[in-house]
Design goal:
It is built from three helices and eight strands, in the order H-H-E-E-H-E-E-E-E-E-E. The chain has a single domain, classed as Roll (Nuclear Transport Factor 2, Chain: A). The chain is α+β, with helices and mostly antiparallel strands.
């Protein structure tokens, strides 16, 4: 089953609202049971329940995060999305803990049967903390 461009866009809008509410169950709704997720640190989770377990502490302990959609490209034929975002949250970088941080990145999303089956997340290697540019330290998981 393929989704139309409009169906993909509507699904992503609902998904973004779930992220805004810090609603893990709402975020997980768009993932395929066989989701493969890789993050910018090289971390990987295979399967919806594995991803839910990996993200549960993050959602429970880091409620100050917010993803802002900057640009979205939808390839209806291939069922793929390129989603550019800005993450705003309290920093976890050593020496800057709790200060406002901004980080830019891209998600490459592959859909199958109307669900995200693959989510590859890439982040810039520089971040903005309290208005100053810093090299990403990857001091947290």
């Amino acid at each position: 089953m393929s989704f139309s461009r409009e169906e993909i866009k509507a699904s992503l809008e609902k998904w973004n609202l779930a992220w805004d509410r810090h609603d893990l169950n709402g975020v997980m709704e768009l993932f395929h049971d066989e989701i493969v997720f890789e993050n910018w640190t090289g971390g990987k989770a295979c399967g919806k329940e594995t991803l839910r377990k990996a993200w549960a502490p993050w959602f429970a302990n880091h409620g100050g995060f917010r993803f802002i959609e900057e640009d979205t490209f939808i390839d209806e034929k291939e069922q793929k999305v390129l989603y550019r975002w800005l993450l705003e949250w309290p920093s976890f970088e050593k020496g800057h803990e709790g200060k406002p941080e901004k980080r830019r990145g891209i998600d490459v999303l592959h859909f199958q049967d109307g669900k995200i089956i693959e989510k590859l997340t890439y982040s810039k290697t520089t971040i903005d903390i309290s208005g100053e540019r810093h090299q990403l330290g990857l001091s947290h998981k």
